[in-house]
Amino acid sequence: MSLDVAALWEAEHPGLLRFLRYKLGPDGESAEDLASEIFLRAIAKQDAYQVRASTPPRNWLYRIASNLLTDHWRAMRHRRHLGLTDAMSCSIRFEDVDARLDMQAHLDALPERQQRVIVGRFYEGKVQSEYDGMTVEAVKKLTQRAFVNLRRRMECAA
After folding, report:
1. Which tens digits make up the pLDDT trace of 107-126?
2. What pLDDT is recorded for position 116?
3. Cα(43)–Cα(127) distance, rounded to whole angstroms?
4. Residue 55 bridge partners (DSSP)
5. DSSP string spanning the chain?
6. Does the pTM exceed 0.70?
């Protein structure tokens, strides 16, 4: 059975774009390009995709997105090591990218709920009352625990 990539595009493109912009930070302009590449790869592989009851196609798209982000960041680091920063037309500083990648690694190491409150609060601009199924007090405590864990991870890495 073939996958309906057009319907998947309609349903998942906005969420993938938000995900990519969050992950790319100041390099968010690349998000549109990467989102398009995700769906180009999905179209190319749609016949090979096997629908599984336990794994929705959305997960497949996010796996493609994660792989593309990894490739993108490797290319950025490769350009930095080759000394091509002056030749690039973007205004991004690689020190900022490294700092963001380090912070992303620390965030990724947190438990999912702690990640969710940090990302929601500081990247999506959510207020404490906007978390479904959680009281304001629970969000506060979870945020505090997340900061303690982040601080410990950053101290250990230094």
Report:
1. 888 888 888 888 887 777 77
2. 84
3. 38
4. 52
5. ----HHHHHHHHHHHHHHHHHHHHGGGTTHHHHHHHHHHHHHHHHTTT---BTTB-HHHHHHHHHHHHHHHHHHHHHHHHHHT-TTT--S---HHHHHHHHHHHHHHHHS-HHHHHHHHHHHTS---GGGSTT--HHHHHHHHHHHHHHHHHHHHHH-
6. no
